[in-house]
UniProtKB/TrEMBL annotation:
Pfam families: HTH_IclR, IclR_C. CDD domains: HTH_ARSR (cd00090). Residues 6-67 form the HTH iclR-type domain. The lineage of its organism: Bacteria, Bacillati, Actinomycetota, Actinomycetes, Kitasatosporales. This is Helix-turn-helix domain-containing protein. InterPro entries: ArsR-like_HTH, GAF-like_dom_sf, HTH_MetabolicPath_Reg, Tscrpt_reg_IclR_C, Tscrpt_reg_IclR_N, WH-like_DNA-bd_sf, WH_DNA-bd_sf.
Amino acid sequence: MTAETSQTLDRGLRVLKLLADTDHGLTVTELSHKLGVNRTVVYRLLATLEQHALVRRDLGGRARVGLGVLRLGRQVHPLVREAALPALRSLAEDIGATAHLTLVDGSDALAVAVVEPSWTDYHVAYRAGFRHPLDRGAAGRAILSARQKPPQDPGYTLTHGELEAGASGAAAPLLGVTGVEGSVGVVMLADSVPERVGPRVVDAAREVADALR
């Protein structure tokens, strides 16, 4: 540190870097040890970063990078969408349903990329920017499920009628993308999701994760 630099800002940036390097978040105690400062300092840093949506804390108290980090660069969302579009387009055309990439934004699930199939007579209208609670809909539930399952067993989540009457959804979480929580899924007008859709969504989520690394 020199006379021209800010110790508080330096610590805040170090917090963000530490959180960006972990998939599971860090506790206040863990951050305190890594930074070499007391817990009170860490609490103040996290509270300030949370106000700007740069950090969020889950129900277990673990701090993670917030989606506000993405908003710092206006080009980030377009870059994320661009990286995800090939896999989403392939998924939508293969399944014949609307495919989407959804990221965590605070306590909500936020659709950041959507591709509709080109050959179907009808499909669910689903738009980028649509948000809903994490505990409703396949996209959010897949993300919550990934927080409790081992990384090698992500699985997929199926729902029906939670966001739109008559619509069913399937989603699988993004894994291995540092600092980003999200899922890839499809939504269709059907009473149930065909058996092959779940594994296909898992494959698409893996493709998107590879493109974002």
